[in-house]
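Example for tutorial group B:
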């Protein structure tokens, strides 16, 4: 059974930082892309970042570029999202998701969109 478990959400003030973690287990393949998504009340889900386990290529949405950093520890099967300079508009439920990708592919992770496995989400609230 594939499981993704997010942790690290919470309440911070504007300008604060948080680090989200996504522990991945149960995947039968070594090659997958992990994405971070968020959904605020009344808004559509937004993919904000992703990382490929094959070559570590990353992607950031414009809304978080320069403030968020995605990284992975393949030995721990954990992907992190370090968030700096948080703003009230970052308030949302943050989800991680994984999708199997071709072995050793160098395709940008942003090209993979059919995420099949999702975590339960973690709430991030940024107060003004």
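The residue assignment follows.
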């Amino acid at each position: 059974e594939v499981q993704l478990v997010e942790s690290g959400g919470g309440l911070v003030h504007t300008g604060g930082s948080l680090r989200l973690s996504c522990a991945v287990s149960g995947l039968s393949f070594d090659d997958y892309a992990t994405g971070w998504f968020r959904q605020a009340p009344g808004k559509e889900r937004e993919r904000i970042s992703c990382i490929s386990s094959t070559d570590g290529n990353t992607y950031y949405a414009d809304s978080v570029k320069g403030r968020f950093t995605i990284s992975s520890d393949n030995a721990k099967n954990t992907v992190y999202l370090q968030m700096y300079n948080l703003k009230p508009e970052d308030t949302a439920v943050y989800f991680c998701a994984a999708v199997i990708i071709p072995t050793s592919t160098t395709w940008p992770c942003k090209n993979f969109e059919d995420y099949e496995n999702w975590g339960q989400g973690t709430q991030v609230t940024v107060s003004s």
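The chain has no helices and eleven strands. Compare this with the pattern of hydrophobic and polar residues in the output above.
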